[in-house]
Design goal:
The complex is a heterodimer. By secondary structure, chain A is mainly beta. Chain A is 0% helix and 57% strand. Chain A has no helices and 12 strands. In chain A, strands 2, 5, 6, 10, 11 and 12 form a 6-stranded mixed beta sheet that branches. A 4-stranded antiparallel beta sheet of chain A has the order 3-9-8-7, with no helix packed on it. Chain A is globular. By secondary structure, chain B is mainly β. Chain B is 0% helix and 50% strand. Chain B has no helices and 11 strands. In chain B, the strands form 2 sheets. In chain B, strands 2, 4, 5, 6, 9, 10 and 11 form a 7-stranded mixed beta sheet that branches. A 4-stranded antiparallel beta sheet of chain B has the order 1-3-8-7, with no helix packed on it. The chains are: A mainly beta, B mainly beta.
Chain lengths: 116, 115
């Protein structure tokens, strides 16, 4: 069965420091990978996605992620975080159920806590 | 601003009652998906509708049902509410069925509390 694991439930980091949020998945078929951000009391917003091509994907707000097929990982990184990056981050993987039926399988989320 | 709206924002019900949650998708988006997000967890896929027909379902019982209307609005209905149904319910719309490449746009969610 397909699954998504976010290894850290919380990541505290000082402002202007770099951060990496980890995501691993298990699947025997091709997948498409997403990172979403959820700010307090708001819905989910797409940060970036990997569909094909270059394994390094750049998203909004200075975030990027690297797809590593051999390690089945899609870790999210930012070189310098800001207090406004405080939010919960979700990794999601799209699996094909049948010809045109896809669903997203989600990780449990990682809370990014920025310390001043 | 994604253009996806949900109502109500908050709702309190008691066990055994029925509830209807509403979602208005972005204009032109033919696909809507519903998710349940329990506290401290990631979203769980409930079901997806495409052009008013159910197009896939997650591991949820039949008391969770839905409707999609031609005007890009949709409903999630839950019968015989249980305490464990307390969660944030999210709807997401996308242009078409190409879920691999098609971004899903999420609404802000409805927070349901079952007492």
């Amino acid at each position: 069965a397909q699954s998504v694991t976010q290894l850290d439930s919380q990541v505290p980091v000082f402002e202007e420091a770099p951060v990496e949020l980890r995501c691993n998945y298990s699947s025997s078929v091709s997948v498409y990978l997403f990172w979403y951000v959820q700010y307090p009391n708001q819905g989910l917003q797409l940060l970036l996605k990997y569909l094909s091509g270059s394994t390094l994907v750049k998203g909004i707000n200075g975030f990027e992620a690297e797809f590593n097929k051999s390690q089945t990982s899609f870790h999210l990184r930012k070189p310098s975080v800001h207090i406004s990056d405080t939010a919960e981050y979700f990794c999601a993987v799209s699996f094909s159920l049948m010809d045109s039926n896809y669903q997203l399988i989600w990780g449990a989320g990682t809370k990014l806590i920025i310390k001043p | 601003e994604t253009g996806v709206t949900q109502s109500p924002t908050h709702l309190i019900k008691t066990r055994g009652q029925q509830v209807t949650l509403r979602c208005s998708s972005q204009s032109g988006h033919n696909t809507v998906s519903w998710y349940q997000q329990a506290l401290g967890q990631g979203p769980q896929f409930i079901f997806q509708y495409y052009r008013e027909e159910e197009n896939g379902r997650g591991n949820f019982p039949p008391r969770f049902s839905g409707l999609q209307f031609p005007n890009y609005s949709s409903e999630l209905n839950v019968n015989a509410l249980e305490l464990d149904d307390s969660a944030l319910y999210l709807c997401a719309s996308s242009l078409d069925l190409s879920g691999d490449t098609d971004t899903q746009y999420f609404g802000p969610g409805t927070r349901l509390t079952v007492l």
